[in-house]
Specification:
alpha/beta, two-stranded antiparallel sheet, ten-stranded mixed β-sheet, binds alpha-D-glucopyranuronic acid, 9 helices, globular
Length: 408
């Protein structure tokens, strides 16, 4: 991962400033939210709107006329999995994305799916020569077989340790993924490539200050993959989870907030702008993220650089937007940049909303020890090691999904 700490980055709990979090259960008119109806009809829409206006930006209301075409099907892993590749074309000559779907070969009926974006192309998630090699722009990372911002055959399977597809299908789940760059390549080009121009109004050439950035576009793409998955007879349409690592974990949270068809949401080390509380300013801050990645959020979010206390929301409210659906927040102990404690505290501060909605919420009040997962309707773990998603993380997500979807 790219770490860019400033000289004054806070990595010491004692330097964390004191702050007050906005209360997810007090409406903008000052009224307390005391029942599920007031949450669903009044407070939840308010919070969602605050995140649209101040953080991620508005998404377009109208959908393009998308065609989904299956371009390839086959088997992999010695016949244990079925593979399907689906092209989603958003406009006849415009942008498209490719969905890669793996299903257990012997499922005998629709299966729940983990859906997440990937960083460097679908062909990186497993060493399977039939996966189409993505030809789009990639962030420069020589180690992932990328040369001059393009994937080479050396990219194939290079991130398979992050996907654990063999284990996931063995447990009876499917996996779907899309390359994030199909939706919007991850660099600041004023939103000229990717899907944003598809929605520009007459004379518009970049999103307005309250309109979506790249994370919004990525989350939108997850919803379009969801549109497809809802129509696939091999998929259980009521059991589709959104997951993601880091910037793509910020994305899975935003997708889960905006699109309640996601029945379970996983944030793997999503950090600043994801699960971590911004007001703590521990590790990456709002200013850091807006300066290094000016294209990720809406322009209005920059007003909160060095002014986190004036934000009308904090990230516990993003987590609360998932309620009452199962939500898993995962941290890693050496991933200081993502502020593991800030991620835990956000999950804890989302708990009252989960409780109001009659669920078990987060079963602990203190941060659990390393490698000691806790699972209620909110799950949390802090594992040993660095910023990544690995077999340990997946083992917990599979147990968590079994816990909530075990009746199948
Ligand atoms: C950078 C960035 C983080 C992000 C991470 C990643 O470190 O500052 O906000 O989560 O990249 O996506 O790996």
């Amino acid at each position: 991962m790219v770490i860019m700490p400033r000289e004054n980055t806070i990595y010491d709990e004692e330097q964390v400033p004191t702050f007050d979090l906005p209360d997810p259960l007090v409406a903008e008119d000052g009224q307390p939210v005391t029942d599920a109806g007031a949450w669903t009809q009044k407070r939840r829409p308010e919070i969602l709107q605050l995140f649209k206006t101040h953080v991620f930006g508005e998404m377009p209301a109208l959908l393009p006329d998308t065609s989904f075409v299956t371009t390839e099907e086959g088997h992999a892993l010695g016949g244990r999995v079925r593979r399907r590749q689906i092209n989603a074309q958003f406009a006849p000559d415009g942008p498209s994305m490719e969905i890669l779907l793996y299903l257990p070969a012997d499922s005998g009926g629709p299966v729940p799916i983990f859906l997440g974006l990937n960083f460097f192309g679908n062909h990186t998630v497993m060493l399977d020569p039939e996966i189409h090699l993505n030809t789009g722009w990639m962030r420069a990372e020589q180690k992932n077989g990328i040369v001059d911002h393009r994937a080479t055959i050396d990219s194939r399977g290079c991130l398979s340790s992050r996907w654990c597809i063999d284990e996931i299908v063995a447990r009876g789940y499917g996996v779907a993924t899309v390359y994030s760059g199909d939706l919007d390549p991850d660099y600041d080009d004023g939103y000229q490539n990717g899907i944003h121009p598809l929605f520009f109004r007459q004379g518009q050439n970049r999103p307005a200050p309250n309109e979506w950035g790249t994370i919004g576009a990525w989350a939108w793409g997850l919803s379009r993959a969801m549109d497809y998955l809802q129509t696939d007879a091999d998929v259980d349409p009521d059991r589709i989870a959104a997951f993601g690592l880091s910037r793509l974990g910020k994305t899975s949270l935003w997708a889960g907030a905006c699109d309640e068809r996601f029945a379970l949401v996983i944030s793997n080390e999503s950090g600043c702008g994801g699960a971590a509380l911004s007001r703590r300013r521990f590790g990456e801050t709002v200013k850091d993220i807006n300066e290094t990645f000016p294209h990720w959020f809406c322009d209005i979010f920059r007003r909160y650089n060095d002014a986190e206390d004036t934000l009308p929301v904090d990230q516990h409210m993003l987590l609360a937007l998932c309620a009452p659906r199962p939500l898993y927040v995962a941290s890693a102990v050496d991933d200081h940049w993502s502020d593991p404690r800030g991620e835990f505290l956000a999950a804890l501060a989302a708990d009252p909303v989960y409780r109001l909605l009659g669920t078990s919420g987060l079963p602990v009040e203190q941060m659990p020890a390393v490698d000691q997962p806790v699972m209620g309707r909110i799950g949390y773990h802090i594992r040993s090691g660095y910023h990544d998603i690995n077999a340990y993380d997946w083992a917990q997500y599979l147990d968590f999904a079994d816990l909530h979807w075990g009746d199948r």
